[in-house]
Design goal:
The complex is a heterodimer of chains A (438) and B (312).
Chain A: E1 2-12, E2 16-25, E3 28-34, E4 39-40, H1 54-57, E5 60-63, E6 68-71, E7 73-78, H2 91-100, E8 103-108, H3 119-132, E9 136-141, H4 155-161, E10 165-167, H5 176-189, E11 192-195, E12 207-208, H6 211-216, E13 220-221, H7 224-240, E14 244-246, H8 252-263, E15 268-272, H9 274-278, H10 300-312, E16 317-318, H11 327-330, H12 347-357, H13 362-377, E17 391-401, E18 420-430, E19 433-437
Parallel strand pairs in A: 1-5, 1-6, 7-8, 8-9, 9-10, 10-11, 11-14, 12-13, 14-15, 15-16
Antiparallel strand pairs in A: 1-2, 2-3, 2-4, 6-17, 17-18, 18-19
Chain B: H1 16-29, E1 47-52, H2 58-69, E2 73-78, H3 90-99, E3 104-109, H4 114-121, E4 126-131, H5 137-151, E5 158-162, H6 169-180, E6 184-188, E7 204-206, H7 209-213, E8 218-221, H8 237-244, H9 248-251, E9 259-261, H10 274-277, H11 284-304, H12 306-311
Parallel strand pairs in B: 1-2, 1-3, 3-4, 5-6, 5-8, 6-7, 8-9
The chains are: A alpha/beta (438), B alpha/beta (312).
The structure holds zinc ion.
Residues 169-170, 196, 247-248 of chain A line the site of zinc ion.
């Protein structure tokens, strides 16, 4: 099987930004031919003429002119609900949604039923995903057994089974000693720790604390419920010398703390989700449960700080926190509704809105959605000869309206239904196979 | 005015004209409760479901009496007697109720927004009898009715609301209602009981009780819920009552004709001393009496008022 991606603008942040053709043989990039005057960073592959006329021998030629060709997008924070809550999402529907969103890899959080704290569950996820021959799925194991926050799970065994990181996401590690030991122990195993930062004594609420909560009569969650734990984890990262990755940053105080920690060399990385740089707590307006998530949508000042954090590097990664829920969990009183929204199919378009607004360059967006998650997780996804052909093809001018009913995710809990977007993933390629085409 | 509103969900959605119309209607209906035969046939043949998902005696009884004085058939359903406890969702319960063709559903619910959710899912008119910390429109309207009855107006009056503003739907609805009608509302209580951004509803905030009641026409005391103490909102009832309890001594600093209100039930000796509660300015029992008339007005306007009459 030979494929050529022809005439796209190849953007591999820090390495390549040039128009060219990518030749794929048997799942790997076999050659990259730049069109005239393409600039490239050192270490990038040079144009070669070893194929005289590859078009004659190609099985498939994708015309990517006017499109970007980027390293496959990686979403390092999704909930696939499988095993245990397959009525919300399955590994199959989840990765279809991922592929449609331009992702070539996702990392799935362990809050399944059972909690993924074992080799068995990790292997189930990996095998199920492999059988589907689509998007890569990297399971994240639990920090504590059953994510109960009482004792460490077996990081060594989880890593051997294929877990890429550990997290108790969905709930915080409230016990600071457990978090300290998790960070220390993870250093020995060589596995990343991802922290859901929440002080549960402060987070007795259902939306952001502020005027909207007051007007609606809903209990508020203050920013400090998040930032206190971010600051604790920074202190523990400094203590242990072990890198902590902060999940779903939503507040300006967290952004500030992470920025300052990085300045003095504390090993911390962070992600935010598209809803935090797009929406504010006003989206809850008429008790919209599709605007209910944890951490909650915050104030306009927080939203702005998150955007600034993405721009200046305080926040490394955009990850969706894709959290499928059915109408059983969402078509309820606001207090009773579950937290979370789906995000795989809207993440890239929402990121491209930031680019259109001038908040980020396109290359920086790809850095946040592909290169940085790869670096944090120890994956490589450079566009280079010999590498697995995991690529996302993006048409930046494609105008489309997101209709959640037509989405691939099994659940429909999105606040972005009906939004008009400019820019979309046109084709997602994993290991040389087209896993999605618009 | 012609009544065109289907649901009574909160104060925010009601215009000055609508608020005035409701209170005018209630003023007119009040006399029925003074008669020997306290019943008119206005809503004969209409069914009112009192769906109380949260325990409440006072408001439920008030609506019940209001419905009966208008000859409507009132049926009470409480959380413990409804299938909600058997795992049915609110929406399913409401759809089941609707299938029995009631003319009005009056709902009390512990979750803010539940009445709005119902109004989106069923076609029956909904009256909110209190939802979480959000709204209690019939209480605010009866409070405004009571003040207008004594003062002859709402516009330009100064009203102090004292206590746990944060957890109070009564406070929220009264802030919105009184300010909409042109009154000046000030709030007093410890900072732990002031919700974020409350000033944006149009009220001023002070932590000083004496400052709050200085020169006001109305003092509205809120009930302190003793279990709140466990959530660190205040140290002890003793200290709360010393700092924010209404006493005759404190009343000396207020205007001589100040009205004293309380949505009930009273914690005598905590937020209000017995002699203050029973003092000349107290209209606490008038509030209860007016509550029936005001709820008759709501049921009449929503279930049988001029809008419905006009349909025929
Ligand atoms: Zn989380």
């Amino acid at each position: 099987m030979r494929m050529i991606i022809k005439g796209g603008r190849i953007v591999d942040p820090g390495r390549i930004d040039a128009v060219g053709d990518i030749l794929i043989d048997n799942g790997r990039i076999s050659d990259i031919r730049f069109h005239e005057s393409g600039k490239q960073a050192s270490g990038a592959p040079s144009s070669v003429d070893s194929y005289a006329d590859p078009q004659k021998t190609a099985d498939r030629i994708i015309d990517a002119s006017g499109w970007y060709v980027v390293p496959g997008l990686i979403d390092m924070h999704v909930h696939l609900r499988d095993p245990g809550q397959e009525y919300k999402e399955t590994i199959e529907t989840g990765i279809q949604a991922a592929a449609a969103g331009g992702f070539t890899a996702v990392c799935c959080m362990p809050n399944t039923r059972p909690v993924n704290d074992s080799r068995q569950t990790t292997e189930y996820i990996i095998h199920t995903a492999k059988r589907l021959q689509s998007v890569h799925v990297y399971p994240i194991g639990a920090i504590s057994r059953e994510s109960k926050g009482l004792e460490l799970s077996e990081f060594g065994e989880l890593k051997e089974a294929g877990a890429i990181a550990v997290s108790d996401d969905g709930q915080p590690v409230s016990d600071s000693q457990l978090m300290r030991r998790a960070l220390e122990y993870a250093k020995g195993v060589g596995i990343r720790v991802i922290s859901h930062c929440e002080d549960t004594a402060l987070s007795h609420g259902v939306m952001n604390e502020g005027f909207t909560a007051t007007r609606l009569g809903l209990a508020g969650i203050p920013n400090a419920a998040e930032s206190i734990m971010v600051m604790r984890d920074i202190a523990l990262a400094e203590l242990t010398g072990s890198l902590v990755h902060i999940a779903h940053v939503s507040t300006r105080e967290s952004v500030h703390a992470i920025r300052e920690a990085k300045k003095i060399g504390i090993p911390v990385t962070a992600e935010t989700a598209p809803h935090y740089f797009t929406l504010t707590d006003e989206s809850v307006a008429a008790y919209n449960t599709n605007a209910k998530m944890n951490p909650p949508l915050r104030s306009p000042e927080d939203r702005q700080a998150v955007i600034e954090g993405l721009a200046d590097g305080a926040i490394d990664v955009i990850a969706t926190d894709h959290a499928p829920h059915s109408v059983l969990e969402k078509d309820l009183e606001f207090d009773a509704a579950a937290n979370g929204i789906i995000g795989l199919e809207t993440s890239l378009p929402l990121g491209l809105r930031l680019v259109a607004e001038g908040a980020l360059s396109f290359a920086l967006l790809i850095q946040k959605m592909s290169k940085n998650p790869a670096n944090i997780l120890g994956l490589t996804n450079d566009i280079k000869t010999g590498a697995s052909a995991d690529l996302t093809l993006i048409d930046p001018s494609r105008v489309h309206i997101y209709c959640v009913a037509n989405g691939y995710s099994k659940s429909k809990n999105s606040p972005f239904d009906g939004w008009k977007f400019k820019g979309a993933a046109m084709c997602t390629i994993v290991g040389g196979r087209v896993v999605y085409e618009m | 005015m012609m009544w065109n509103r289907k649901h009574i969900l909160d104060m925010d959605s009601l215009s000055v004209a609508e608020i005035t119309a409701i209170i005018d209607t209630a003023d007119g209906l009040k006399e029925i409760s003074e008669r020997a035969i306290k019943k008119v046939p206005t809503l004969r043949g209409k069914t009112v479901v009192l769906f109380f998902h949260e325990p409440s005696t006072r408001t439920r009884v008030s609506f019940d009496i209001a419905a009966k004085r208008l000859s409507a058939d009132a049926i009470s359903i409480s959380a413990s007697s409804s299938s909600l406890v058997k795992g049915e969702t609110l929406i399913d319960t409401a759809r089941n109720l609707e299938a029995m063709k009631p003319d009005v559903i009056v709902i009390r619910h512990s979750s803010a927004g539940a009445p709005l959710l119902l109004s989106q899912k069923v076609s029956t008119p909904i009256i909110n009898a209190g939802d979480g910390m959000h709204a209690h429109p019939s209480q605010a309207l009866l409070d405004m009715m009571t003040v207008r009855e004594v003062k002859g107006r709402l516009d330009g009056l100064r009203v102090a609301i004292v206590g746990d503003i944060s957890h109070s739907r009564v406070a929220r609805s009264n802030i919105i209602g009184f300010t909409r009608m042109g009154a000046d509302v000030r709030l007093a209580g410890p900072p732990t009981m002031m919700p974020a951004g409350i000033e944006a509803l149009g009220a001023s905030v002070t932590y000083d009780f004496d400052e709050a009641i200085d020169g006001v026409d109305v003092i509205m005391m809120l009930r302190i819920q003793k279990e709140r103490q466990q959530r660190f909102l205040f140290p002890t009832e003793r200290e709360y009552s010393r700092r924010y309890g209404l006493t005759l001594e404190r009343l000396k600093k207020a205007k001589p004709d100040v009205m004293i209100m309380h949505p009930g039930p009273l914690n005598r000796g905590v937020e209000i001393s017995p002699d203050a509660a029973d003092s000349a300015g107290s209209v606490i029992l008038n509030q209860v009496t007016n509550g029936v008339a005001l709820r008759m007005a709501l049921l009449y306007l929503v279930a049988g008022g001029p809008r419905n009459a006009d349909d025929h």
